[in-house]
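As the next step, I selected for study a record pairing a protein sequence with its backbone structure tokens, which the following lines show:
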Amino acid sequence: MEIKQSTDTTVAGMLKKSLFPHQAAWIKPVIIFIMMLLLLIPLAFIRSLVNDRERYQRTAEASIMEPVGGEPVIEGLVLAVPYDELVEYTDSSGKVIKKGKKTDYILTVPETYNLVTQIDPYRLSRGIFTVPVFNGDLAVTASFSGFQFSQFNIAEKNIRYKDAVLILGIKDKKTLTAYPALYGNGKPLLEALTVPAGASPFRNAVYYMMSEDVVRSGFSIEGSVSIQGGKSLCIVPLAADNSFAVQSTWSAPSFSGGWLPKNRTLDDSGFTADWRISGLSTVFPRSWRAQDFDLAKDTDVYDEYGGYTAKSTSEFRSSPETVKIGFITPINHYSQVKRCITYALLFLAVPFLAIFLCELWSAVRIHPIQYFLIGIADVLFYLLLLSFSEHVAFNLSYLIATAGVCTVVGFYTAAIFKQIRWGVLLTAVQAVSYFLLFGILQSEDYALLIGSIGIFCVVALLMFLTRRVDWYSSRFASVHTHQEDADRGTPQRAITGKLSSGDIE
């Protein structure tokens, strides 16, 4: 009997013979690995798309926040008292050529500073994006002791009490919905007619005129500040003794900044929280000369980009010199999709390995293009997840994407293997792998542990299932053939299928 080698003159046949004329068992894993690397290209495009959608979200949120002034920051009250200082101007030799006066300010913070507010946020939408915005009235009370200047070595005759001003610092005046009505010792304070240059430690402020007698003797402040804003409220504890109380109907607050609430209650109807902060735990001095201490430069209330750290675009950054109450929205689905893509390579490998094992166990040969199509379907999982998560809850989006990909891949596998059981098997493998990924996403603190155990189990299972594969075989052999040869006690040999009648003469 003579076996003649069949010839295939088709383009596909010649390409197959030219690329893989005698395909050993180890060749297919190499091809699979190369395809996985190629699939990183569409994954990179999807990650870029996620970043684009995030930028679009920030743009939409900024367009909502701009009319209300952004995230309000209440910086507190400071008393500024000017004084004249003699200045001598010298030439290069040190000789005094001119004498003059320079005005500086002594700034004093309150002894006590109390703030109570009720904040009831509501949602504003721009397209598919929403932002919590709010209006609120801040009940402000404070007390100042009599003005002290002895530590600054200044003659009292140089102090201009009549030009003293009370300064209310606020990050953006657009967040004020009305002129703040403040009362000093029960009398309404009038707005300062001129803004004293160099007096304010704040970048934006409201100025009130103060009389000489109350500055000398001390005074109390009370009043109301009506504000608007969105996403969060920040308060700076400037005084020697600070107490803040916030009540809201928002059920999902976040507390950050330099201090957490001393007491808090949270339920579905909202929250209440209060703070008690000593001036000893802040960086702010009780009093200082304006030229010696700059709030913007010498504290962390502002970030390095010239804006408030509390208003940074990064949700994880918050000034250590503020109390920040954030009105958070449901979990950021974009960050969740990014985390999914981070683990994508592992979850692309699992179905490929499953198909490869099915190929070892069966007599069916799977073309690399078929592997690639299944890989593309797995990549589209992340695109489906991104698309649906913009419109429905993330968990439901995950379920829809999982069901869609598992169904398509399962039917396709059953078709190419021509047996339903292989489709059911791969569907189960896909479902388990996506369930594991979902567990990693939900358990952020244990994500590394779950992922490590998952990888270990996959590798161990792969080692067990391929323990009888003859990787040196010149032909792609099935595990069943090797097992049968071992049972007969005959040497292992590679069988690729039955010979056709045309191959025998």
Summary: The first helix runs from residue 11 to 19.
